[in-house]
Design goal:
By secondary structure, the chain is α/β, with parallel strands linked by helices. The chain has 14 helices and 15 strands. The strands form 3 sheets. An 8-stranded parallel β-barrel has the order 4-5-6-7-8-9-10-11, surrounded by 5 helices. Strands 1-12-3-14-15 form a 5-stranded antiparallel β-sheet, with no helix packed on it. α9 links the parallel β7 and β8.
Length: 437
């Protein structure tokens, strides 16, 4: 059957000219563009085509001849998210609603704060329920999980155990590693009993490499916590490590820890690696052409992480604008766009999480202009740049001409769910969903 395809796909060579109208190339130095040159961009495009799309065959019957068949992608398999630490805390219903809208409009995933220190400030008094007192960036977990479920988001819990006392442990935690161990196991069990498989994946242990300098912990606590998680959570829940920063370069010690956990029988499903550009001047240096966060360095880190043979989650992304003006915001957007494109193109990466979506919403001491939104919840250029990638360029939409009542049409599209709409021989509109994997 002869079929005409009208593809609404934004290939880079076509998209860049439109993109450049809003994000002008000249705000970055030529040294920056020497790193992110045409050859690099072509490699990224080729890898996206290879690694993020799949072949499918659309099969329909009882189709009206010469009618149009619309094939619209409605969701991604790849997970794009943000932490949702400011849920309900932005000062007005209008701002809270604008924040919530991003979860579904831009993101299909969210990272929920489960820091034990603020989740259970007193022994046995756990801040699960909606009527619990709010703590900055640590809302009660039940309403956040329920909201995420209402939006159909993939939910990532951060974190079961965090071995830095000032952030991770409740103040009442004893300074005795033997006394701590049963408390750790009980904590894992309580989370599992409360949430089961409603939280789809967890950072089981956060930042465990430099344990010698981080205070008293139970012996071999990383391994033990993974085994407790496997004991108490449903089998379908995924377990992740989360460690290091891509700025450190290839971190073989982290790979060794992940492989050791696997070799000893721990269920490790995912490997989180962070990418924080906290310093506004650091982002300006990148724009000026400093050899930092270059494609070469990103590939080196991802290649090293891949030696653990696990899917990779770019788990905490901070890109501080150099300044809170138009130029600074444009630089932030260009840096983010190029990094997201490279990460999305890499075969083992399965999820990318922006860390703080609103300016001023970071932890104390972290940058105040690293959000996708201003403090007034206005969308910054970086928001629009990511939206164009995630919801436009990286979604497939095509229209086909049906030249007979039986249709079997091969096509290639981004992995995810699609809604197919057509007219049957009786003139009635029909729809169905398919999944391109």
């Amino acid at each position: 059957m002869k079929t005409r395809f009208y593809l609404f796909l934004a290939f880079w060579s076509l998209a860049f000219s439109a993109f450049a109208m809003e994000l002008p190339r000249e705000v970055m130095s030529e040294k920056y563009w020497a790193f992110w040159n045409d050859d690099v961009q072509k490699k990224i495009d080729a890898d996206i085509e290879k690694n993020r799309k799949a072949d499918a065959v659309l099969t329909l019957s009882n189709v009206r001849k010469n009618s149009k068949i619309d094939v619209q992608q409605i969701s991604h398999d790849f997970q794009f998210g943000s932490n949702i630490f400011l849920f309900g805390q932005l000062g007005s219903e209008e701002k809270n609603k604008a924040y919530e809208a991003a979860f579904g409009e831009l993101f299909n995933a969210a990272t929920v704060a489960f820091y034990w220190k603020t989740l259970e400030p007193e022994p046995g008094k756990i801040r699960f329920a909606a009527d619990s007192e709010y703590s900055y960036r640590r809302p009660p977990t039940d309403p956040v999980v329920a909201f995420c479920e209402s939006r159909g988001l993939n939910i990532h819990g951060h974190a079961i155990i965090y071995g830095i006392r000032r952030w991770g442990h409740p103040e009442w935690m004893p300074n005795d590693r033997k006394a701590m161990e049963p408390l750790f196991e009980k904590h894992v069990q309580q989370l599992a009993e409360r949430y089961g498989d409603r939280v789809h994946q967890w950072d089981v242990v956060n930042e465990c490499i430099d344990q010698a300098n981080r205070g008293i912990m139970p012996d071999d606590y990383t391994y033990k916590t993974f085994r407790w998680a496997e004991k108490y959570f449903p089998a379908k829940v995924l377990f992740s490590t989360n460690e290091c920063d891509m700025a450190w370069g290839p971190t073989r010690r982290y790979v060794e820890i992940a492989r050791d956990l696997k070799d000893r029988g721990a269920k490790v499903d995912l490997m989180g690696v962070q990418s924080h550009i906290f310093d506004p001047q650091g982002c300006q240096s990148i724009a000026d052409g400093a050899k930092a966060r270059t494609p070469e360095q990103n590939y080196a880190v991802l290649d090293c992480m891949s030696e653990a043979e696990l899917p990779i989650h770019i788990s905490e992304v901070t890109i501080s604008a150099p300044s809170d003006d138009e130029k600074g915001r444009l630089i932030q957007a260009i840096v983010a766009r190029n990094l997201y494109r490279l990460w999305f193109s890499y075969p083992r990466v399965v999820r990318i999480t922006w860390w703080n979506a609103v300016d001023g919403g970071a932890a104390p001491g972290e940058p105040s202009i690293s959000g996708l939104f201003t403090k007034d919840l206005e969308k910054k250029p970086v928001y629009h740049a990511l939206y164009e990638l995630i919801q436009e360029e990286w979604k497939t939409h095509l229209t086909l001409d049906a030249e007979s009542s039986e249709v079997a049409i091969p096509f290639r599209g981004f992995r995810g769910k699609y809604r197919v709409t057509w007219t049957d021989t009786d003139g009635q509109t029909q729809t169905k969903e398919i999944h391109v994997r």
